[in-house]
Amino acid sequence: MNKNRIRVGVVYGGRSAEHGVSCETAAGIMGNLDPRRFDVVGFAITTEGTWVQTDVDLDRLAINAGQLPNITESWGTVVGIEEALSSVDVIFPFAEDVNIQGLLELTGVPYVGPDVFGSVAGADKEFTKTLLAADGFSVAEFVTLRAHEDTVQPEQLERLGLPLFVKPARGGSSIGVHRVTTTDELPAAIADARRYDRKVLVEAAVRGRELWCGLLEFLDGTVKASAVGEVNIDDGHGREDGFYDFAKKYFDGVSHLDAPANIDEVPHLVVPANIDDDVCAEVRRLAIKAFHATESRGLSRIDFFLTDNGVMVNEINPIPALTTVSMYPLGWAVSGVDHPTLLATMVETALARGTR
Fold this sequence. Notes:
Blueprint: E1 6-13, H1 19-30, E2 38-45, E3 51-54, E4 77-78, H2 81-86, E5 90-93, H3 99-107, H4 116-123, H5 125-134, E6 142-145, H6 154-160, E7 164-168, E8 178-180, H7 186-193, E9 200-204, E10 209-217, E11 223-231, H8 246-250, E12 269-270, H9 277-293, E13 299-307, E14 310-317, H10 327-334, H11 339-352
Parallel strand pairs: 1-2, 1-5
Antiparallel strand pairs: 2-3, 3-4, 6-9, 7-8, 7-9, 10-11, 10-13, 11-12, 13-14
Helix pairs in contact: 4-5
C-alpha cells in the first residue's frame, strides 16, 4: 500500500434485493478511482451478512449470461467489520442498505453520501413524498399499505384511478415494481412487492416525460446540478404501456462495466434531454431544493415527471447507481465532469465533512 494515497473502501453486496446491482456500482467505482491518488479495497457482503475483503476484480462483478453477481466467501478473505473499517480512510457505502450509514456514524469512519436521516428520507418512498409535499413540491397521489393491510380500499382506488404502480416502499432498481391496469392484477402485484418490503406503495400513474438530474456536493459545501436527462422507453409498444423496469436497466444494451463510445449508444437514456431551457432550469432548481429538503449530502439523483401541469417530483435516489452507463455519471459527463473526477470529488467532500 502506498501511504501517500488515500485508502478507499468500497462496500457492496449485502442482504437486500439489490445485492447483484450493487456489485455493478462497485465496479463502476473501483474501476474509475484514479490509482495515482487512491488505494482501493473492496468489502463484499454476502447475502448472509459476512464481510469479505476483495481485490479489484471487475470481471467478477460483471453480468454474465443474464445473471447478476452473487457474492460468496470464496471471493476473498473473511474479515471482521471493525477490522475492515479501521483499515481505510473513507468508505463508499453502496451495499443498498441504509443501516450501514448508522454503523459508520457510530464508528466515526468518513463516508460518501448522505447520513442516516438523508439516506432513510430518500430510500423510503412514503417519507420522501410526505417530506417533499410538506415543502410545497408536487408529487403523485399514493396509498401506503402497511404490514397488516392487504389491499387498496374502494375509495382509495377511486382517488388513484387506473393505471397505477405498485412498488416496495423501500426498494430500488424497479425490483418488485408492477404497472397495474385492472383491479384483477392488483392482488398479485401487491403480493410480489411485499416479497421485498412489508410496506408497499400504491401510486397513481403520471402521464408525462420522465426526467432526472444529478446533484453533487463540492468541497466548499456548495451543491450543483448536472445536465438534465430523460428516460425514453418508447420501444415500439408505446411509452404509455411501459416503464423503465429492472430488465431494461440491467439486461438491455451496453455493458455496465464499459464506458460507451457515445452517450447516444446507451439504450433508453437521452442526455441532455430535449427540453426547453426554462424547463431545464426549473428541473435543476427543484432538484437542488429537494436535495436540501431531505437533508441529503454528498450526492443524489432526483427523478421527475414533466406533465402538462408542470414539473412533478417522482423519487429521490440518495445512493444512485454509478456504473459507466448509469443516469448519474452520464448526466455529469455531459456537464463536463468525467467519472474519475466525479468520484474524487465525492471522496474529498466526505473527508472534509468533519472539518466544516
